[in-house]
Design goal:
heterodimer, A: 116 residues, mainly beta, seven-stranded mixed beta sheet, four-stranded antiparallel beta sheet, B: 114 residues, six-stranded mixed beta sheet
Chain lengths: 116, 114
């Protein structure tokens, strides 16, 4: 079964550093998402991306965050100047086109980001 | 905007007991509904989903859920739980169409005692 792949599985970074979380969505999917889950809390939506642009973002997704699809396969989340409160599990997800067939909304296994 | 409520935050059951986890959503239009499971230290996995048709949906590992439109509910059930069902369960809703985001409930931690 196709998977959404995320790397690395765990990243430790110093406060103030920049990190890039990488995701390889399922190849025929067109909608891409980032979510995060702070330890002990619910999964929160960060941003959705379609047709090479952000389609929706939450209030969490401020100027510190950016997303990019640099080539035909990767989907990245960049966090500039990380803060302690950015420590969380970050999930990438991708989804097939709507209108017939399965929704195909699939999550990756997550990247645990620890800011120290 | 849509929202999801899961009223049971922590449920403890003995093996072979029956399970029902409540989920209610709020949204004025047509929605698709999901239950995800997160085993300790692992990622989110889809248990089952409802798009349309038969409101009783069967998923993996013996789980099922019933969509009751009039009650805006999508409760998860399993007739007989196992120790391996110990996990956190998230109900989620997504409005139909477009690039809509998934909105998750706060989750229910299920602990099954052998």
């Amino acid at each position: 079964e196709p998977e959404v792949t995320q790397t690395p599985s765990h990243q430790v970074t110093q406060m103030g550093q920049e990190v890039i979380l990488r995701c390889v969505p399922i190849s025929n999917h067109l909608y891409f998402y980032w979510y995060r889950q702070i330890l002990g809390q619910k999964v929160e939506f960060l941003v959705s991306f379609y047709n090479n642009e952000i389609s929706e973002k939450s209030e969490i997704f401020d100027d510190q965050f950016s997303v990019e699809r640099p080539d035909g396969s990767n989907f990245t989340l960049k966090i500039r100047s990380t803060k302690l409160e950015d420590s969380a599990m970050y999930f990438c997800a991708s989804r097939a086109e709507t209108g017939g067939g399965s929704y195909g909304y699939t999550f990756g296994s997550g990247t645990r980001l620890t800011v120290v | 905007a849509q929202s999801v409520s899961q009223h049971n935050h922590h449920v403890i059951l003995s093996e072979a007991a029956s399970l029902e986890l409540g989920c209610n959503y709020s949204y004025g239009g047509t929605v698709n509904l999901f239950w995800y499971v997160q085993y300790p230290g692992q990622h989110l996995q889809l248990l089952l989903k409802y798009f349309s048709g038969d409101p009783l949906v069967k998923g993996i590992k013996g789980f099922e859920a019933e969509f009751i439109k009039s009650k805006f509910s999508f409760n998860l059930r399993k007739p007989s739980v196992q120790w391996s069902d110990t996990a956190e369960y998230f109900c989620a809703v997504i409005p139909s169409g477009g690039y809509q985001k998934v909105t998750f409930g706060t989750g229910t931690k299920l602990q099954v005692i052998p």
